[in-house]
């Protein structure tokens, strides 16, 4: 099952028989079997018929709304899980400094481990000494994070490791038409940051959906501070996936010349956005990456990255319920 992306402005999604059809005027833009769709993501101004919304909710399919440039707005989702006992354990852990710290350490070490792996690969394949040095800094941050006495300390070590990683990220970009001087988030002011920001938004949305499926409260996390309206738990869970999903896609698109500077536009304030063509290509690459299979180190079997979003969330549920002694972040090799 995959995500259906609707990017055409003024388009309409409707269910006809057992198929989902996107039209604009008399033109049929997309026609796919309902059974193959796990989520709908709409960019900008497109509509969904009322009867289709009802059918999607019956089938447990989310409808996520983003701005045309990819900023998250909100979602229509099925009835909340009835697993209240799981959420009770989630709330208990959130008010336990010990439990919160243990989970925060796991999320940080999982992310940093995958950052380090990505850099070590680059150091071996392209003989980049700068990446090797940054990987050593990340390794030190991992060791420190595992010994953190507070959640703030864990966040600090995560920041140190991320700074080392993004300090050499430009070395991973072989395409000389693109430059990267550091992470710029809101708003992104260059093509590389525009890709990273869009990718992280898509990833957060997918983890939000996984959290809903498992029955956890998306607004109560452990590493990310609680703020009104902030989906802290999906943000916690997505940390381990940032380098192996989004960063890998960005590097693939740039280093394989799939995207060129013509696929980006700049608006007032140097705000950089993908063109419609560039965005559609990036979405295809994102979906392909999600459907790629890998050998899960804990399950000892081949699964898709998309399935691993839910699996890692279920591991968290088992940890909260006491079925696992500690949360096993997904660490690639």
From TrEMBL:
Coiled-coil intervals, chain numbering: none
GO terms of biological process kind: defense response to virus; maintenance of CRISPR repeat elements
The protein's required cofactors: Mg(2+); Mn(2+)
Keywords carried by this UniProt record: Antiviral defense, DNA-binding, Endonuclease, Hydrolase, Magnesium, Manganese, Metal-binding, Nuclease
Residues binding Mn(2+): 158, 224, 239
Task of the protein: CRISPR (clustered regularly interspaced short palindromic repeat), is an adaptive immune system that provides protection against mobile genetic elements (viruses, transposable elements and conjugative plasmids). CRISPR clusters contain spacers, sequences complementary to antecedent mobile elements, and target invading nucleic acids. CRISPR clusters are transcribed and processed into CRISPR RNA (crRNA). Acts as a dsDNA endonuclease. Involved in the integration of spacer DNA into the CRISPR cassette.
Stated name of the protein: CRISPR-associated endonuclease Cas1
Organism: Candidatus Moduliflexus flocculans
